[in-house]
C-alpha cells in the first residue's frame, strides 16, 4: 500500500528531500525549468499550493521508503522518481492516474514529455496513453477515462 503525502503537509526533512531530488541532474534534465530551485523558492511554491485548487502535489511513500513525487496541474500530470530508486515509474503513474480519475474525476489525463525521453514515453504507452501532439521536441500524450 502506498501513502500519498500532500506537499502542504510535508515536514522540513521531507521538504528538503523532495528539493534534493528536484535539483538532482538526473531529474532536472527532464523538467521545463532546468535551474536549481532554492530552498526559499521551494517553500514559496509549497505555500502557494495551499490556495491553488488546480495543483496537487504528493510525495509517495511505501512503508519507510520514499518512492517519488506525483502531481496534477489541471488535467496535466507529472511524476519523478527518487533518483536512488529503480522501477518505481509504474507505481507513481498508477497513483496519479487513480487520483486524477477517482478523486478529481478528470475525464482526460494529459502528460507532456520530451520526445527524446524514451523511458517516459514507453511508460506512458504501457498505460494506454496516446500521442496527440508532437512538436518535434515535446509530445503531448493523453489517457481518456473510458479507455483505461
Explain what this protein looks like in three dimensions:
The protein is of the alpha+beta class and 148 residues long. It has a single domain, classed as Aminopeptidase, CATH 3.40.630. It has 5 helices and 7 strands; from the N terminus they run βαααβββαβαββ. The chain has a 4-stranded antiparallel beta sheet, sandwiched between helices. The chain has a 3-stranded antiparallel beta sheet with strand order 5-7-6. The longest helix is centred in the middle third of the chain and has 15 residues. The chain is globular, with a radius of gyration of 15 Å.
Beta-strand percent range: 25-35%
Biggest sheet overview: 4 strands, antiparallel
Oligomer: single chain
Q: Span from first to last CA?
A: 21 Å
Identify the overall geometry.
Answer: globular
Return the CATH topology. Aminopeptidase
Secondary structure topology:
Elements: E1 3-6, H1 12-22, H2 25-28, H3 39-49, E2 55-62, E3 65-73, E4 76-81, H4 89-103, E5 108-114, H5 118-126, E6 130-134, E7 138-144
Antiparallel strand pairs: 1-2, 2-3, 3-4, 5-7, 6-7
